[in-house]
Amino acid sequence: MHQREEGFTWFSGDGTSASRIDYIFTRDCPPTDATLTPLFFSDHIMLSCTLSLPTGVTVGGGLWQLNCSLLEDEDVVREYREQFSQWQTLQDFYDSRAQWWEMDREPVSPVPGLTLSEAKQVWRNAAHPALQNRHKDLSWMAAHEILPVRAGMHSRGMAKNPTCPRSGCNFPETVRHLLWECGAARDLWAKTGPLYFQCLPAGGAQIGYQLAILGVGRGLKDLTAQDFTSLWLTLNVIKDAIWATRNLLVGKRVTVPLHACELKVTSMLQGYRATIFGRGGRGRTERVPAATVAGRP
To answer: For the chain, is the Cβ count within 10 Å smaller at the N or the C terminus?
Structure first.
């Protein structure tokens, strides 16, 4: 059924019959051969394969059977459709479907205040293939709350005080304060609102800390994978601008005005557009917001 993808769809010996199963993934047990056998009593075809098992695996007798009742489970069907939709949007960023599958199956670290399902989405967002590496790092450290901010550094004896370096701000500089609660951060989120509001579903998700910093929240399920990619890229360049200007203030005592921060955001968005278009792929992520066009307020 997917004739162009060698190695994932098996055909009968004469090459005329394709498997009714689109893909079979085996973890750490690569198949060495496979055959399809017609069944006279059914319109199905039996798949037989030999797996190369790693050393130390206990092998038992019997046949593996697919649990067809799962095809009637609404939650399973919905999750599969969401996963496949994500793959269709992001496939240009992976070398193979198997690479995407393995990355998506990584163990999930808990995130305080979030469910396991939400935590999985957080780490999936942090490793989003459309992100530049520094934005992946920033998302990962923000989710772990291990950015080298003053409050954390002070608690380890590596900073003189925990106070936010912004003029007139006397609150402890935590990750949440830096990226969301500080006046400088709030001003930039407000100034760049037209860029990310146009990516949100109308009347759906409300921008808040979890959505802006972690990429999870109510209403996001109404977004297609393509629309979420557009939103997530926008949120990450805003966080990058906040973090970069803060480091200029701390390291070089340079205060970057709000207008210049906004220009940095629009410039990075244009850079994303150029990078994505330059891949020569199918262009499924072209809806990165045009930085020079304001959306709905």
So the answer is: C
